[in-house]
Fold:
Amino acid sequence: MKLIFFKTFIIIIILLSIMLVSQYYLSIEKKIELKEESDLYMPEVPYLKFISLGFDGLIADLVLAKALTYYGNHYFQRNIFKYKHLKKLFFTAVEMDPNNKDAFIMGNNILKTVDPSSKSSIEILKRGAFYHPKYWKFPEMIGFNYYYSLDEPEMAAKYYEIASKQYKFDKSVVNGNTPSPYVISLSGKFYEESGKYHEALRVLKKFYETTRDKRLKRNFLDSYKRVLKRIGLRDKYIRENLTKINMFIKIQIGGF
Amino acid sequence: MKTKTGLIARLLYRELVRDKIYISVFIGASILVLSTIILNEMVVGEKIKATKDLGLSILNLFSLFIVLFLGINLITRDISQKTLYFLFAKPVSRSDYLKGGYISIILSLIIGILLLIFVIGTLSFLQGEIWIKGLLTAGYFTFLEMIIIVSFAFLFSVSTSPQLSMFLTLLVYIIGHSIEKAAVIVDKSSNLILKYFIKFIYPILPNLEFLNKKTSIIYKLDISFSYYLQSTLYAVSYSILVFFIAVLIFRNREL
Structure:
Protein backbone atom coordinates (compact mmCIF):
# COMPACT_ATOMS: atom_id res chain seq x y z
CA MET A 1 0.00 0.00 0.00
CA LYS A 2 2.79 2.32 1.00
CA LEU A 3 4.66 1.50 -2.17
CA ILE A 4 1.66 2.39 -4.32
CA PHE A 5 1.27 5.66 -2.49
CA PHE A 6 4.96 6.40 -2.96
CA LYS A 7 4.80 5.58 -6.68
CA THR A 8 1.77 7.83 -7.15
CA PHE A 9 3.53 10.60 -5.30
CA ILE A 10 6.62 10.26 -7.51
CA ILE A 11 4.50 10.27 -10.67
CA ILE A 12 2.68 13.41 -9.52
CA ILE A 13 5.99 15.13 -8.77
CA ILE A 14 7.39 14.20 -12.20
CA LEU A 15 4.24 15.35 -14.01
CA LEU A 16 4.16 18.58 -12.06
CA SER A 17 7.82 19.27 -12.89
CA ILE A 18 7.25 18.59 -16.58
CA MET A 19 4.24 20.87 -16.56
CA LEU A 20 6.06 23.71 -14.80
CA VAL A 21 9.14 23.46 -17.05
CA SER A 22 7.05 23.39 -20.23
CA GLN A 23 4.99 26.30 -18.92
CA TYR A 24 8.19 28.28 -18.35
CA TYR A 25 9.44 27.64 -21.90
CA LEU A 26 6.05 28.39 -23.36
CA SER A 27 5.98 31.75 -21.59
CA ILE A 28 9.44 32.58 -23.06
CA GLU A 29 8.20 31.55 -26.49
CA LYS A 30 5.20 33.81 -26.05
CA LYS A 31 7.42 36.75 -25.12
CA ILE A 32 9.47 36.19 -28.27
CA GLU A 33 6.28 36.12 -30.32
CA LEU A 34 5.28 39.47 -28.84
CA LYS A 35 8.25 41.12 -30.53
CA GLU A 36 6.31 40.96 -33.76
CA GLU A 37 3.07 42.85 -34.23
CA SER A 38 0.32 40.32 -34.83
CA ASP A 39 -2.63 40.92 -37.11
CA LEU A 40 -5.90 42.05 -35.62
CA TYR A 41 -8.86 39.92 -36.54
CA MET A 42 -11.58 42.42 -35.95
CA PRO A 43 -14.61 42.40 -38.27
CA GLU A 44 -16.00 45.69 -39.56
CA VAL A 45 -18.63 47.26 -37.29
CA PRO A 46 -21.78 46.24 -39.27
CA TYR A 47 -20.61 42.62 -39.30
CA LEU A 48 -19.58 42.76 -35.66
CA LYS A 49 -23.05 44.09 -34.80
CA PHE A 50 -24.51 41.27 -36.84
CA ILE A 51 -22.71 38.60 -34.81
CA SER A 52 -22.99 40.37 -31.48
CA LEU A 53 -26.53 38.99 -30.87
CA GLY A 54 -27.65 42.16 -29.15
CA PHE A 55 -24.75 42.30 -26.71
CA ASP A 56 -23.35 45.42 -28.41
CA GLY A 57 -22.69 47.24 -25.14
CA LEU A 58 -20.73 44.39 -23.63
CA ILE A 59 -18.68 43.89 -26.79
CA ALA A 60 -17.99 47.63 -26.92
CA ASP A 61 -16.72 47.47 -23.32
CA LEU A 62 -14.46 44.53 -24.15
CA VAL A 63 -13.09 46.21 -27.30
CA LEU A 64 -12.49 49.39 -25.33
CA ALA A 65 -10.65 47.41 -22.65
CA LYS A 66 -8.68 45.73 -25.44
CA ALA A 67 -7.80 49.17 -26.89
CA LEU A 68 -6.54 50.36 -23.52
CA THR A 69 -4.49 47.24 -22.82
CA TYR A 70 -3.17 47.37 -26.40
CA TYR A 71 -2.04 50.93 -25.80
CA GLY A 72 -0.44 49.95 -22.49
CA ASN A 73 1.24 46.84 -23.89
CA HIS A 74 2.73 48.70 -26.83
CA TYR A 75 3.78 51.78 -24.91
CA PHE A 76 7.39 50.70 -24.43
CA GLN A 77 7.67 49.49 -28.02
CA ARG A 78 5.83 52.42 -29.56
CA ASN A 79 8.70 53.33 -31.86
CA ILE A 80 8.62 49.88 -33.47
CA PHE A 81 4.90 49.19 -33.71
CA LYS A 82 3.41 52.68 -34.11
CA TYR A 83 0.16 51.43 -32.55
CA LYS A 84 -0.98 49.90 -35.81
CA HIS A 85 -4.41 48.76 -34.60
CA LEU A 86 -5.22 51.34 -31.94
CA LYS A 87 -7.35 53.59 -34.14
CA LYS A 88 -9.44 50.68 -35.38
CA LEU A 89 -9.98 49.41 -31.85
CA PHE A 90 -11.21 52.79 -30.61
CA PHE A 91 -13.43 53.35 -33.62
CA THR A 92 -14.93 49.88 -33.24
CA ALA A 93 -15.60 50.51 -29.54
CA VAL A 94 -17.36 53.83 -30.14
CA GLU A 95 -19.38 52.63 -33.11
CA MET A 96 -20.53 49.54 -31.21
CA ASP A 97 -21.82 51.69 -28.35
CA PRO A 98 -22.14 55.32 -29.44
CA ASN A 99 -23.94 56.24 -26.22
CA ASN A 100 -20.74 55.90 -24.22
CA LYS A 101 -19.40 59.47 -24.32
CA ASP A 102 -16.41 58.51 -22.18
CA ALA A 103 -15.15 56.24 -24.96
CA PHE A 104 -15.02 59.15 -27.42
CA ILE A 105 -13.17 61.33 -24.92
CA MET A 106 -10.77 58.52 -24.04
CA GLY A 107 -10.19 57.85 -27.74
CA ASN A 108 -9.44 61.52 -28.31
CA ASN A 109 -6.96 61.69 -25.44
CA ILE A 110 -5.09 58.50 -26.33
CA LEU A 111 -5.10 58.87 -30.12
CA LYS A 112 -3.65 62.35 -29.65
CA THR A 113 -0.58 60.88 -27.96
CA VAL A 114 -0.16 58.43 -30.84
CA ASP A 115 -0.87 60.84 -33.68
CA PRO A 116 0.42 64.33 -32.79
CA SER A 117 -1.37 65.85 -35.80
CA SER A 118 -4.61 65.00 -33.95
CA LYS A 119 -6.34 63.98 -37.18
CA SER A 120 -7.54 60.66 -35.71
CA SER A 121 -8.67 62.45 -32.55
CA ILE A 122 -10.66 64.94 -34.58
CA GLU A 123 -12.16 62.10 -36.58
CA ILE A 124 -13.35 60.22 -33.48
CA LEU A 125 -14.71 63.43 -31.93
CA LYS A 126 -16.60 64.21 -35.12
CA ARG A 127 -18.30 60.82 -34.81
CA GLY A 128 -19.10 61.75 -31.21
CA ALA A 129 -20.56 65.09 -32.32
CA PHE A 130 -22.62 63.25 -34.94
CA TYR A 131 -24.15 60.94 -32.33
CA HIS A 132 -24.51 63.63 -29.65
CA PRO A 133 -25.29 66.90 -31.42
CA LYS A 134 -26.36 68.59 -28.18
CA TYR A 135 -23.22 67.70 -26.25
CA TRP A 136 -20.98 70.78 -26.31
CA LYS A 137 -17.72 69.10 -25.26
CA PHE A 138 -17.15 67.28 -28.56
CA PRO A 139 -17.15 70.40 -30.81
CA GLU A 140 -15.17 72.23 -28.12
CA MET A 141 -12.51 69.49 -28.15
CA ILE A 142 -12.46 69.44 -31.96
CA GLY A 143 -11.91 73.21 -31.91
CA PHE A 144 -9.13 72.80 -29.36
CA ASN A 145 -7.40 70.20 -31.58
CA TYR A 146 -7.75 72.37 -34.67
CA TYR A 147 -6.21 75.31 -32.90
CA TYR A 148 -3.41 73.75 -30.86
CA SER A 149 -2.47 70.77 -33.03
CA LEU A 150 -3.32 71.75 -36.57
CA ASP A 151 -2.92 75.52 -36.16
CA GLU A 152 -6.16 76.27 -37.96
CA PRO A 153 -7.88 79.05 -35.99
CA GLU A 154 -10.71 79.46 -38.48
CA MET A 155 -11.81 75.84 -38.15
CA ALA A 156 -11.31 76.07 -34.40
CA ALA A 157 -13.56 79.13 -34.30
CA LYS A 158 -16.27 77.31 -36.27
CA TYR A 159 -16.32 74.41 -33.82
CA TYR A 160 -16.18 76.69 -30.78
CA GLU A 161 -19.15 78.51 -32.25
CA ILE A 162 -21.03 75.19 -32.58
CA ALA A 163 -20.19 74.37 -28.94
CA SER A 164 -21.27 77.83 -27.78
CA LYS A 165 -24.74 77.28 -29.25
CA GLN A 166 -25.41 75.01 -26.27
CA TYR A 167 -24.74 77.89 -23.87
CA LYS A 168 -27.73 78.70 -21.71
CA PHE A 169 -28.17 82.40 -21.06
CA ASP A 170 -30.96 81.71 -18.65
CA LYS A 171 -29.13 81.04 -15.40
CA SER A 172 -31.97 78.94 -13.97
CA VAL A 173 -31.19 76.13 -16.44
CA VAL A 174 -27.40 76.28 -16.15
CA ASN A 175 -25.93 72.90 -15.22
CA GLY A 176 -22.88 70.79 -16.04
CA ASN A 177 -24.17 70.18 -19.55
CA THR A 178 -23.76 73.76 -20.68
CA PRO A 179 -20.47 75.30 -21.78
CA SER A 180 -18.72 78.10 -19.94
CA PRO A 181 -18.69 81.60 -21.45
CA TYR A 182 -15.03 81.15 -22.41
CA VAL A 183 -16.20 78.94 -25.29
CA ILE A 184 -18.03 81.92 -26.83
CA SER A 185 -15.11 84.27 -26.21
CA LEU A 186 -12.69 81.83 -27.81
CA SER A 187 -14.94 81.47 -30.83
CA GLY A 188 -14.73 85.23 -31.37
CA LYS A 189 -11.02 85.31 -30.57
CA PHE A 190 -10.16 82.57 -33.07
CA TYR A 191 -12.21 84.23 -35.81
CA GLU A 192 -10.34 87.42 -35.02
CA GLU A 193 -7.00 85.61 -35.09
CA SER A 194 -7.72 84.03 -38.46
CA GLY A 195 -8.52 87.45 -39.89
CA LYS A 196 -12.25 86.79 -40.16
CA TYR A 197 -13.13 90.00 -38.34
CA HIS A 198 -16.69 90.21 -39.55
CA GLU A 199 -17.36 86.65 -38.43
CA ALA A 200 -15.89 87.55 -35.04
CA LEU A 201 -18.16 90.59 -34.86
CA ARG A 202 -21.18 88.51 -35.81
CA VAL A 203 -20.51 86.00 -33.03
CA LEU A 204 -19.76 88.61 -30.38
CA LYS A 205 -22.75 90.73 -31.34
CA LYS A 206 -25.09 87.77 -31.25
CA PHE A 207 -24.02 86.77 -27.75
CA TYR A 208 -23.89 90.37 -26.55
CA GLU A 209 -27.50 90.80 -27.53
CA THR A 210 -28.60 87.49 -26.02
CA THR A 211 -26.89 87.52 -22.62
CA ARG A 212 -28.37 89.23 -19.58
CA ASP A 213 -25.22 88.90 -17.51
CA LYS A 214 -23.74 92.39 -17.14
CA ARG A 215 -20.17 91.18 -16.72
CA LEU A 216 -20.42 89.05 -19.84
CA LYS A 217 -22.04 91.91 -21.75
CA ARG A 218 -19.10 94.13 -20.83
CA ASN A 219 -16.57 91.48 -21.88
CA PHE A 220 -18.29 90.90 -25.21
CA LEU A 221 -18.50 94.62 -25.79
CA ASP A 222 -14.77 95.03 -25.08
CA SER A 223 -13.94 92.24 -27.50
CA TYR A 224 -16.31 93.74 -30.05
CA LYS A 225 -14.58 97.12 -29.79
CA ARG A 226 -11.17 95.50 -30.05
CA VAL A 227 -12.15 93.71 -33.26
CA LEU A 228 -13.64 96.91 -34.65
CA LYS A 229 -10.40 98.68 -33.87
CA ARG A 230 -8.43 95.99 -35.66
CA ILE A 231 -10.70 96.32 -38.69
CA GLY A 232 -10.10 100.08 -38.58
CA LEU A 233 -6.36 99.58 -38.35
CA ARG A 234 -6.40 97.11 -41.22
CA ASP A 235 -8.47 99.41 -43.42
CA LYS A 236 -6.25 102.33 -42.50
CA TYR A 237 -3.17 100.32 -43.39
CA ILE A 238 -4.73 99.34 -46.72
CA ARG A 239 -5.66 102.98 -47.49
CA GLU A 240 -2.21 104.24 -46.63
CA ASN A 241 -0.37 101.55 -48.54
CA LEU A 242 -2.75 101.12 -51.44
CA THR A 243 -0.20 102.18 -54.04
CA LYS A 244 2.46 99.89 -52.54
CA ILE A 245 0.02 96.96 -52.44
CA ASN A 246 -1.05 97.56 -56.05
CA MET A 247 2.57 97.70 -57.14
CA PHE A 248 3.29 94.48 -55.26
CA ILE A 249 0.36 92.77 -56.97
CA LYS A 250 1.54 94.04 -60.38
CA ILE A 251 5.04 92.71 -59.75
CA GLN A 252 3.62 89.37 -58.69
CA ILE A 253 1.42 89.12 -61.80
CA GLY A 254 4.25 90.41 -64.01
CA GLY A 255 6.52 87.77 -62.55
CA PHE A 256 4.21 85.11 -63.83
CA MET B 1 -54.67 25.85 -10.00
CA LYS B 2 -57.12 22.97 -9.58
CA THR B 3 -57.67 22.45 -13.29
CA LYS B 4 -55.88 19.63 -15.10
CA THR B 5 -53.38 22.06 -16.60
CA GLY B 6 -52.73 23.60 -13.19
CA LEU B 7 -52.12 20.23 -11.59
CA ILE B 8 -49.75 19.16 -14.35
CA ALA B 9 -47.94 22.49 -14.13
CA ARG B 10 -47.45 22.05 -10.38
CA LEU B 11 -46.24 18.50 -10.84
CA LEU B 12 -43.81 19.38 -13.59
CA TYR B 13 -42.57 22.44 -11.72
CA ARG B 14 -41.66 20.25 -8.74
CA GLU B 15 -39.75 18.00 -11.10
CA LEU B 16 -37.91 20.98 -12.58
CA VAL B 17 -36.91 22.22 -9.13
CA ARG B 18 -35.45 18.78 -8.42
CA ASP B 19 -33.06 19.35 -11.33
CA LYS B 20 -31.26 21.89 -9.08
CA ILE B 21 -31.16 24.34 -11.95
CA TYR B 22 -31.38 27.33 -9.63
CA ILE B 23 -28.29 26.35 -7.70
CA SER B 24 -26.25 26.03 -10.88
CA VAL B 25 -27.68 29.32 -12.19
CA PHE B 26 -26.91 31.05 -8.91
CA ILE B 27 -23.33 29.76 -8.73
CA GLY B 28 -22.63 30.36 -12.42
CA ALA B 29 -24.12 33.85 -12.37
CA SER B 30 -22.22 34.74 -9.20
CA ILE B 31 -18.91 33.67 -10.74
CA LEU B 32 -19.61 35.58 -13.91
CA VAL B 33 -20.81 38.64 -12.07
CA LEU B 34 -17.67 38.60 -9.96
CA SER B 35 -15.68 38.66 -13.18
CA THR B 36 -16.92 42.24 -13.53
CA ILE B 37 -14.30 43.10 -10.94
CA ILE B 38 -11.65 42.09 -13.47
CA LEU B 39 -13.42 43.94 -16.26
CA ASN B 40 -13.76 47.02 -14.07
CA GLU B 41 -10.00 47.05 -13.59
CA MET B 42 -9.58 47.45 -17.34
CA VAL B 43 -12.27 50.06 -17.83
CA VAL B 44 -11.49 53.73 -17.52
CA GLY B 45 -14.36 56.13 -16.91
CA GLU B 46 -17.72 55.05 -15.57
CA LYS B 47 -16.99 51.65 -14.03
CA ILE B 48 -20.60 50.89 -13.15
CA LYS B 49 -21.36 50.83 -16.89
CA ALA B 50 -19.22 47.72 -17.37
CA THR B 51 -20.98 46.04 -14.44
CA LYS B 52 -24.36 46.89 -15.94
CA ASP B 53 -23.38 45.68 -19.40
CA LEU B 54 -22.07 42.40 -18.09
CA GLY B 55 -24.96 42.03 -15.66
CA LEU B 56 -27.62 42.42 -18.34
CA SER B 57 -25.76 40.05 -20.65
CA ILE B 58 -25.60 37.47 -17.86
CA LEU B 59 -29.32 37.94 -17.21
CA ASN B 60 -30.07 37.24 -20.85
CA LEU B 61 -27.66 34.33 -21.31
CA PHE B 62 -28.63 32.52 -18.13
CA SER B 63 -32.32 32.92 -18.90
CA LEU B 64 -31.57 31.33 -22.25
CA PHE B 65 -29.71 28.57 -20.43
CA ILE B 66 -32.73 27.91 -18.19
CA VAL B 67 -35.07 27.82 -21.18
CA LEU B 68 -32.83 25.57 -23.27
CA PHE B 69 -32.10 23.20 -20.44
CA LEU B 70 -35.59 22.91 -19.02
CA GLY B 71 -37.71 23.50 -22.11
CA ILE B 72 -36.13 20.75 -24.13
CA ASN B 73 -35.47 18.31 -21.30
CA LEU B 74 -39.01 18.39 -20.01
CA ILE B 75 -40.79 16.82 -22.96
CA THR B 76 -37.99 14.64 -24.29
CA ARG B 77 -37.42 13.12 -20.83
CA ASP B 78 -41.11 12.38 -20.38
CA ILE B 79 -41.20 10.76 -23.80
CA SER B 80 -38.02 8.71 -23.31
CA GLN B 81 -38.95 7.64 -19.75
CA LYS B 82 -42.44 6.69 -20.98
CA THR B 83 -44.05 8.85 -18.29
CA LEU B 84 -46.45 10.17 -20.89
CA TYR B 85 -48.03 6.75 -21.41
CA PHE B 86 -49.18 6.69 -17.78
CA LEU B 87 -50.30 10.27 -17.95
CA PHE B 88 -52.32 9.90 -21.13
CA ALA B 89 -53.98 6.75 -19.79
CA LYS B 90 -55.76 9.13 -17.41
CA PRO B 91 -58.27 11.74 -18.63
CA VAL B 92 -55.54 14.21 -19.58
CA SER B 93 -55.25 15.53 -23.10
CA ARG B 94 -51.99 16.19 -24.89
CA SER B 95 -52.69 19.91 -25.03
CA ASP B 96 -53.28 19.93 -21.25
CA TYR B 97 -49.88 18.35 -20.78
CA LEU B 98 -48.17 20.87 -23.06
CA LYS B 99 -49.96 23.79 -21.43
CA GLY B 100 -48.96 22.54 -17.99
CA GLY B 101 -45.37 22.14 -19.12
CA TYR B 102 -45.37 25.61 -20.61
CA ILE B 103 -46.69 27.17 -17.40
CA SER B 104 -44.14 25.28 -15.28
CA ILE B 105 -41.27 26.51 -17.46
CA ILE B 106 -42.56 30.07 -17.35
CA LEU B 107 -42.74 29.82 -13.57
CA SER B 108 -39.18 28.49 -13.39
CA LEU B 109 -38.08 31.25 -15.73
CA ILE B 110 -39.67 33.97 -13.59
CA ILE B 111 -37.97 32.64 -10.46
CA GLY B 112 -34.65 32.26 -12.32
CA ILE B 113 -34.85 35.85 -13.61
CA LEU B 114 -35.68 37.18 -10.13
CA LEU B 115 -32.72 35.25 -8.73
CA LEU B 116 -30.40 36.73 -11.35
CA ILE B 117 -31.80 40.21 -10.72
CA PHE B 118 -31.01 39.72 -7.05
CA VAL B 119 -27.38 38.70 -7.78
CA ILE B 120 -26.75 41.55 -10.25
CA GLY B 121 -28.57 44.07 -8.07
CA THR B 122 -26.47 43.09 -5.06
CA LEU B 123 -23.28 43.55 -7.05
CA SER B 124 -24.28 46.98 -8.34
CA PHE B 125 -25.33 47.91 -4.82
CA LEU B 126 -21.85 46.91 -3.58
CA GLN B 127 -20.44 49.24 -6.23
CA GLY B 128 -22.50 52.10 -4.86
CA GLU B 129 -25.55 52.20 -7.10
CA ILE B 130 -29.05 51.14 -6.25
CA TRP B 131 -30.27 49.81 -9.58
CA ILE B 132 -33.77 48.43 -9.25
CA LYS B 133 -35.92 50.00 -11.95
CA GLY B 134 -33.42 49.26 -14.73
CA LEU B 135 -32.96 45.68 -13.62
CA LEU B 136 -36.69 45.05 -13.38
CA THR B 137 -37.20 46.51 -16.85
CA ALA B 138 -34.39 44.33 -18.18
CA GLY B 139 -35.92 41.33 -16.44
CA TYR B 140 -39.28 42.07 -18.04
CA PHE B 141 -37.88 42.34 -21.57
CA THR B 142 -35.76 39.21 -21.03
CA PHE B 143 -38.90 37.41 -19.90
CA LEU B 144 -40.74 38.49 -23.06
CA GLU B 145 -37.85 37.34 -25.19
CA MET B 146 -37.66 34.00 -23.43
CA ILE B 147 -41.36 33.17 -23.73
CA ILE B 148 -40.85 33.16 -27.49
CA ILE B 149 -37.81 30.91 -27.11
CA VAL B 150 -39.76 28.54 -24.80
CA SER B 151 -42.44 28.17 -27.47
CA PHE B 152 -39.81 27.34 -30.07
CA ALA B 153 -38.15 24.88 -27.67
CA PHE B 154 -41.54 23.16 -27.27
CA LEU B 155 -42.16 23.18 -31.01
CA PHE B 156 -38.82 21.58 -31.78
CA SER B 157 -38.85 19.12 -28.90
CA VAL B 158 -42.25 17.73 -29.93
CA SER B 159 -41.18 17.35 -33.52
CA THR B 160 -37.47 16.43 -33.51
CA SER B 161 -34.77 14.74 -31.43
CA PRO B 162 -33.43 16.43 -28.24
CA GLN B 163 -30.05 17.30 -29.76
CA LEU B 164 -31.59 18.74 -32.89
CA SER B 165 -34.20 20.67 -30.95
CA MET B 166 -31.47 22.17 -28.75
CA PHE B 167 -29.56 23.21 -31.86
CA LEU B 168 -32.63 24.60 -33.61
CA THR B 169 -33.77 26.58 -30.56
CA LEU B 170 -30.32 28.09 -30.25
CA LEU B 171 -30.45 28.89 -33.93
CA VAL B 172 -33.77 30.71 -33.47
CA TYR B 173 -32.16 32.80 -30.72
CA ILE B 174 -29.20 33.66 -32.97
CA ILE B 175 -31.38 34.42 -35.99
CA GLY B 176 -33.79 36.43 -33.86
CA HIS B 177 -30.99 38.71 -32.77
CA SER B 178 -29.29 39.05 -36.12
CA ILE B 179 -32.12 39.11 -38.66
CA GLU B 180 -32.54 42.89 -38.39
CA LYS B 181 -28.85 43.57 -39.03
CA ALA B 182 -28.73 40.88 -41.71
CA ALA B 183 -31.59 42.65 -43.50
CA VAL B 184 -29.59 45.92 -43.42
CA ILE B 185 -26.45 44.24 -44.76
CA VAL B 186 -28.30 42.28 -47.44
CA ASP B 187 -30.18 45.40 -48.51
CA LYS B 188 -26.88 46.85 -49.73
CA SER B 189 -25.98 43.65 -51.54
CA SER B 190 -26.44 43.20 -55.29
CA ASN B 191 -27.69 39.64 -54.89
CA LEU B 192 -31.39 39.94 -55.69
CA ILE B 193 -32.31 36.38 -54.68
CA LEU B 194 -30.82 36.87 -51.23
CA LYS B 195 -32.46 40.26 -50.93
CA TYR B 196 -35.95 38.93 -51.68
CA PHE B 197 -35.38 35.85 -49.56
CA ILE B 198 -34.54 37.99 -46.52
CA LYS B 199 -37.49 40.29 -47.28
CA PHE B 200 -39.76 37.26 -47.38
CA ILE B 201 -38.57 35.58 -44.18
CA TYR B 202 -38.03 38.82 -42.20
CA PRO B 203 -41.64 39.17 -41.00
CA ILE B 204 -42.00 35.44 -40.34
CA LEU B 205 -38.96 34.94 -38.10
CA PRO B 206 -38.97 36.37 -34.58
CA ASN B 207 -37.20 39.70 -34.30
CA LEU B 208 -35.76 39.51 -30.78
CA GLU B 209 -34.03 42.86 -31.21
CA PHE B 210 -37.45 44.46 -30.59
CA LEU B 211 -37.13 43.12 -27.05
CA ASN B 212 -33.49 44.08 -26.61
CA LYS B 213 -33.54 47.33 -24.64
CA LYS B 214 -30.18 46.97 -22.91
CA THR B 215 -28.81 50.26 -24.25
CA SER B 216 -31.90 52.22 -23.22
CA ILE B 217 -31.79 50.66 -19.75
CA ILE B 218 -28.07 51.28 -19.19
CA TYR B 219 -28.20 54.90 -20.39
CA LYS B 220 -31.54 55.49 -18.66
CA LEU B 221 -33.26 56.47 -21.89
CA ASP B 222 -37.02 56.67 -21.84
CA ILE B 223 -39.02 53.64 -22.92
CA SER B 224 -42.55 54.75 -23.72
CA PHE B 225 -45.61 53.02 -22.37
CA SER B 226 -46.72 52.25 -25.93
CA TYR B 227 -43.40 50.44 -26.49
CA TYR B 228 -44.03 48.28 -23.44
CA LEU B 229 -47.50 47.52 -24.71
CA GLN B 230 -46.46 46.79 -28.28
CA SER B 231 -43.53 44.58 -27.27
CA THR B 232 -45.73 42.65 -24.82
CA LEU B 233 -48.37 42.10 -27.50
CA TYR B 234 -45.70 41.06 -30.00
CA ALA B 235 -44.02 38.55 -27.67
CA VAL B 236 -47.24 37.08 -26.28
CA SER B 237 -48.96 36.72 -29.66
CA TYR B 238 -45.85 35.25 -31.28
CA SER B 239 -45.26 32.73 -28.51
CA ILE B 240 -48.92 31.67 -28.43
CA LEU B 241 -48.84 31.18 -32.20
CA VAL B 242 -45.72 28.99 -32.06
CA PHE B 243 -47.08 27.12 -29.04
CA PHE B 244 -50.34 26.49 -30.91
CA ILE B 245 -48.38 24.93 -33.81
CA ALA B 246 -46.48 22.80 -31.25
CA VAL B 247 -49.79 21.58 -29.80
CA LEU B 248 -51.09 20.71 -33.26
CA ILE B 249 -47.96 18.70 -34.05
CA PHE B 250 -47.98 16.99 -30.65
CA ARG B 251 -51.63 15.94 -31.05
CA ASN B 252 -50.82 14.06 -34.24
CA ARG B 253 -47.50 12.67 -33.12
CA GLU B 254 -46.94 8.93 -32.59
CA LEU B 255 -45.45 8.44 -29.16
